[in-house]
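Shall we go through a protein fold together, starting from nothing but its sequence? Please make up or recall a protein chain and show it to me in full. Go ahead whenever you are ready, and we will take it from there.
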Amino acid sequence: MENKKVTFSDIAKYTNFSKTTISRYFNNPDSLTLKNQEIIAQALIDLNYQENKLAKVLANGKSEFVGILLPNLFLHYYSEMLNQILSTYETFGYKFLVFVGTGSEETERKYLQELLAYKIEGLIVLSHTISSDELASYNIPIVTIEREDSNVNSINTDNYMGAVQATSLLIKNNCDILIHVNSNVQENIPAYGRIKGFCDICRQQNINHELILTDLGNNYNETKERISDVYFSVKEKYPNMRKGIFMANDTHANILLNLIMREYGSFPDEYRIVGFDDSPIASEAIIPISTVGQQIDKIAYEAMRLLVSQMNERKKRRPTPQTEIVHKKITPILVRRDTTT
């Protein structure tokens, strides 16, 4: 059998089973006894059988592929989330087709059409460009992460709780002024909880604070320039005061930290910094950064688990329609490092 492609007929002849039985082994193995499954499995080894994945897709329309649409890989959160989603292959057996968005609705719709053309069985979306209403119209299992999710299932961090944790840590560090730096996040985006949590705690505890919402750019150079403007503005506005700065994510926190370190040569006592995500950049920074851990590995796993449950339901002869949209929140964990005490 070494010089030719092994077929179902070859396997049937080798095992004395019918071709129908061999087909059932690949498409519905639970319909066979465990003993017969073991016989066929051993035959595949003996015959050096290599499954034709393309033929299987053409036969049953199931690709075993999941699409992923990310907004960018510049922010370390997204690259680490992608890494964790890809690592679920060993658990769930699904492979992935990945597109990184551009912020253009037209382009990302082309990406979605490309993914659908590859017969993906489900979709994980972190990009913010396409509305959840439109995503739901594609009529495939979808789970979103940290974006507007009114009409689709989602797994998100409890951003409000994370902001409360970050702000409370800065208060305990005896800061004279607390500052939160973020983009102009819409209220229907889960990350808006970081803004609301910060403001609520500061007001409740009568803490001197400032909220800075601005366009922070979409690549390293833009973001560095804009965070630099924020840094020098804050430094000039609050001289001789201990400034507790809560950044929207670890990438931004690391850029701020680098700006401070380049100016002072060390981390001065007048600054305290907390990031958000606990992506690798937080622990790998020149001074490890205190942050709110999103449990990225858990979010990735729960997103795939929810998606797989939807995809499996679709494969049933009589699938049960989903009656309620699932929105699950993962509890964040505060991680204290060297940018706070």
